[in-house]
């Protein structure tokens, strides 16, 4: 008799993905509330712009420490700690009277956000088969990114109706609800208990009988090979006493596959992040002369395009595992080419070209998820958190640098504020992306070759 298919992996994944969606809601909670925040704290636009930058700095800066901690205390604890930090941050945001304290609140939100995504990604391989993982990861990204939609309309409506304090306390309450669900449901791996079970000292039947797709011996799964991470003995699984951070980092970076994953994440998502986090609306309105409603409608196109790409790329990169890096590279090159066309266009670019840009640009987000697949294939298991955190810094450092450089280049041209914006100034400013694409694309090609050679030399096949 065939054993029933396990349900627990789906339940654990559902709460983990929900935690990530809440992290994104918290991350983007100020995106539609700029004027409300300015009015509430009495701040100018420059101070307002500091919020997303500080948050990104905190997020990117914490990826590696969070990754190291993740390998020590596990994904369940990190997701719950992340949730608690975000609740504290949003409760503080709701109640503090001064902008300096609001920045501290934002740092808490950024720190909690930094704990969430890579912990969710670390948890998935414990519950799903290698064949399922690319699709599950993409859908996780899709669910998370849909959190952005919540912060745009429902949160703005909530703050409009219940006021600043009511809105942000409401957000903290949603976070609390999801953390409570996490305390009851999240488990690092089959057989490991929930936090509630740890606190009460009682292990329930669900934990005792837990099975995952990763270890079940169904006919479909028996064809799937064991994870490559188990097979790469370059780094000893034995914890070496006193092995310091830099030593670990050096050992990890010696693996060409890990470096490849880093550059894959570096090259693909920054253009979309930069556009969606800060410079998209100013460019569409101040550069192309569209009205705000048209800009919003065009920006919503990016969400649709990103969702379609997530659904397509997961199964594709699972089916054609040898080509997954080329899918990422193809998307990055397409983004670079279309953006470059907009940048060098001698007059106002035609609407058709802008539409193509807005459809191609968001593919970088789902494409960057391939980096985590590459990292998983090449990172030894006990370094998985560290590796995921390291890879995740790629896209976010690139995004942060490009956001700052665009602002700087606009300022240098004397076009730093809305009344001075011009198409030409934006075209020059957005050109700062070009060296980032060139660097990313060259490094992907170089590291892809090195990885291939390394695998041949070590008799490995890709899994
Ligand atoms: N590439 C993004 C996630 C994504 C998935 N689909 C669209 N974007 C990423 O790296 N996310 C990390 C995070 O913390 O959100």
TrEMBL record:
<keyword id="KW-0813">Transport</keyword>
<dbReference type="GO" id="GO:0005765">
    <property type="term" value="C:lysosomal membrane"/>
</dbReference>
<feature type="transmembrane region" description="Helical">
    <location>
        <begin position="421"/>
        <end position="446"/>
    </location>
</feature>
<dbReference type="InterPro" id="IPR011701">
    <property type="entry name" value="MFS"/>
</dbReference>
<feature type="transmembrane region" description="Helical">
    <location>
        <begin position="47"/>
        <end position="70"/>
    </location>
</feature>
<keyword id="KW-0458">Lysosome</keyword>
<dbReference type="InterPro" id="IPR020846">
    <property type="entry name" value="MFS_dom"/>
</dbReference>
<feature type="transmembrane region" description="Helical">
    <location>
        <begin position="351"/>
        <end position="372"/>
    </location>
</feature>
<keyword id="KW-0812">Transmembrane</keyword>
<feature type="transmembrane region" description="Helical">
    <location>
        <begin position="260"/>
        <end position="281"/>
    </location>
</feature>
<keyword id="KW-0472">Membrane</keyword>
<dbReference type="InterPro" id="IPR036259">
    <property type="entry name" value="MFS_trans_sf"/>
</dbReference>
<feature type="transmembrane region" description="Helical">
    <location>
        <begin position="164"/>
        <end position="186"/>
    </location>
</feature>
<feature type="transmembrane region" description="Helical">
    <location>
        <begin position="293"/>
        <end position="313"/>
    </location>
</feature>
<dbReference type="Pfam" id="PF07690">
    <property type="entry name" value="MFS_1"/>
</dbReference>
<feature type="domain" description="Major facilitator superfamily (MFS) profile">
    <location>
        <begin position="12"/>
        <end position="452"/>
    </location>
</feature>
<keyword id="KW-1133">Transmembrane helix</keyword>
<comment type="function">
    <text>Lysosomal dipeptide uniporter that selectively exports lysine, arginine or histidine-containing dipeptides with a net positive charge from the lysosome lumen into the cytosol. Could play a role in a specific type of protein O-glycosylation indirectly regulating macrophages migration and tissue invasion. Also essential for liver homeostasis.</text>
</comment>
<protein>
    <recommendedName>
        <fullName>Lysosomal dipeptide transporter MFSD1</fullName>
    </recommendedName>
</protein>
<dbReference type="GO" id="GO:0022857">
    <property type="term" value="F:transmembrane transporter activity"/>
</dbReference>
<dbReference type="InterPro" id="IPR052187">
    <property type="entry name" value="MFSD1"/>
</dbReference>
<dbReference type="GO" id="GO:0005886">
    <property type="term" value="C:plasma membrane"/>
</dbReference>
<feature type="transmembrane region" description="Helical">
    <location>
        <begin position="77"/>
        <end position="97"/>
    </location>
</feature>
<feature type="transmembrane region" description="Helical">
    <location>
        <begin position="325"/>
        <end position="345"/>
    </location>
</feature>
<comment type="similarity">
    <text>Belongs to the major facilitator superfamily.</text>
</comment>
<comment type="subunit">
    <text>Homodimer. Interacts with lysosomal protein GLMP (via lumenal domain); the interaction starts while both proteins are still in the endoplasmic reticulum and is required for stabilization of MFSD1 in lysosomes but has no direct effect on its targeting to lysosomes or transporter activity.</text>
</comment>
<feature type="transmembrane region" description="Helical">
    <location>
        <begin position="384"/>
        <end position="409"/>
    </location>
</feature>
